[in-house]
Design a protein that fits this description.
There is one protein chain. The chain has 227 residues and is of the alpha+beta class. It has a single domain, classed as Fumarylacetoacetase-like, C-terminal domain (Fumarylacetoacetate hydrolase, domain 2). Helices cover 14% and strands 33% of the residues. It contains five helices and 18 strands. A hairpin with a 3-residue loop joins strand 17 and strand 18. The longest helix has 9 residues. The termini are far apart.
Length: 227
């Protein structure tokens, strides 16, 4: 008999290509990790120390649909790659960081840009603009054994067939091993943690009925419809 005083919430999972489910613990997101995107957001693209915010585990959404959220009129797409960890720890050495990676997946960091902008102006946290329901559409995870480690390759996002975002994974200011090592200095990382690796330039608004197609070399493509 369970000692829980209310029903326990279900474990959040993301499907793995080829079968199985990956249980999610935490979701970390790096901000302004492509120089061109930093510029378009009004910031200096020089290599400043990285910063992170978080989404909630159940913001990950593998349904293929993105429900347009409430209390906003300006929702932006941000094309990203999600990194899934199979091991954790603290103070992880840079040269050992990739040993902690289970696999990679296509992911979108959908953003209520108007609410994020208001929070920035008021010096408040961003979560109201970032960590809302179903705000991280995600594709199936491709294991390291299947695709290796993604250090370069094109990343693109089309909306209704029109190219909006285009970049290369080698343009990331902070690479995947650096993100893992840096985060482990401030948090105890663990199996089930997920890191969103930032977005290239070209972010923009979507409306209901739009169809977003995210593609990353080595991971294929996924289509997400705004509903």
């Amino acid at each position: 008999m369970s000692d829980f005083v209310i029903p326990a919430p279900p474990t959040v999972t993301v499907p793995v290509a080829g079968g199985g489910q990956f249980p999610v613990r935490r979701v970390y997101c790096i901000g302004r990790n492509y120089a061109a995107h930093a510029v378009e957001m009004g910031h200096d693209p020089d290599r400043e120390p990285p910063f992170f915010f978080q989404k909630n585990p159940d913001d990950l959404n593998a349904s293929g649909e993105f429900p347009y959220p409430r209390q906003t009129s300006d929702v932006h797409h941000e094309a990203e790659v999600a990194v899934f960890l199979k091991a954790g720890g603290t103070d992880i050495p840079l040269e050992k960081a990739l040993d902690h990676v289970y696999g990679y997946a296509l992911c979108l960091d959908m953003t209520r840009r108007d609410l994020q902008g208001t929070a920035k102006k008021m010096g408040r946290p961003w979560e109201i603009g970032k960590a809302f329901d179903a705000s991280a559409p995600v594709g199936p995870i491709h294991t390291v054994d299947e695709v290796g480690h993604l250090t370069e390759g094109s990343i693109t996002l089309k909306v209704n067939g029109e190219l909006k975002q285009e970049g290369d994974l080698n343009q990331m200011i902070w690479k995947v091993p650096e993100m893992i090592s840096y985060l482990s200095q401030y948090y105890t990382l663990a199996p089930g943690d997920v890191i969103l690796s930032g977005t290239p330039a070209g972010v923009g608004a979507v409306v209901k009925g739009d169809v977003m197609e995210l593609a990353v070399e080595g991971l294929g493509a996924m289509t997400v419809t705004v509903v």
